[in-house]
Amino acid sequence: MELTNDIEVTAPIEEVWAAFNDVERIAPCLPGAQLQEIEGEEYRGVVKVKVGPITAQYKGAAVFEERDKDNWRVVIKGDGRDTRGAGNASALITATLDPKSDTVTGVNVTTDLTITGKVAQFGRGAIADVSTKLMGQFADNLEALLEEGPAADADDAAPETAAAEEAATPAAAADVPAASGVRKIDSPEAEAVDLLEVAGTPVLKRLAIPVGILVVHIVLRRMLRNN
To answer: Which of the ends of the chain has fewer CB neighbours closer than 10 A, N or C?
Structure first.
C-alpha cells in the first residue's frame, strides 16, 4: 500500500536536510523506533508497536538508496521481521523537502509499505490514519530536536583523537585485530507505540471487530496450551 503524508517543520531547510541524513540523530524522533547499530551504510534497529494486548517488535535494517540535495530528496529502504515470526514489514520511503519560508520547511513523505501478520489485518484506512498521526508526532519531535541546535561534528575531532591514541600505544595497536565495522549505538529502549491510543475514536470503531477477534484468538490459544 502507498501512504502519503505532508508535514511542516519550523526550521530552515538546510537544518532539516542535515537531520534527515543523520540517522543516528533523527531515529529517536520516530515513535517506537530504536537505532541499535551501524555497519557501513546500513542502519539496524527495532520498531515496536502494540494493539491492545498484542505487541509486535520488528527488527531490521535500513539503507539510503538516494540522497539528492539538488532536489532535496532522500529515499530510504527498510526491511524488518517480527521477532516472534508473526509477520514482516518492508518500506520504501521517499522524503522530499520544500522551503516554505526561511524558517519553515515542508516535508512530503511517500511510503510504499508492505506488511504481513497481525498488524496487516487492520486494513489500509486504519493504517493510513495511524500513519498520519505518527508523522505529526515525528514532526513535533524533529522540531524539538532542531531547537537544541546542530549536533557536534565528531568528524573534525576524530582524526586528532585517533592519531593521539596511536602515538600513545604504538606497540599495542599493532596487536589489535581489525574492527568488525559494526558500531553499537547506546540508545534508550524504545517504548512501543500503542496504535489504538494513537488512532483515536474514529479508527477505534473500525478496529473494534478485528481486535476483538485477535483477543479471543489469544485467549483460546492460551487455554489450549494450559490444557
So the answer is: C
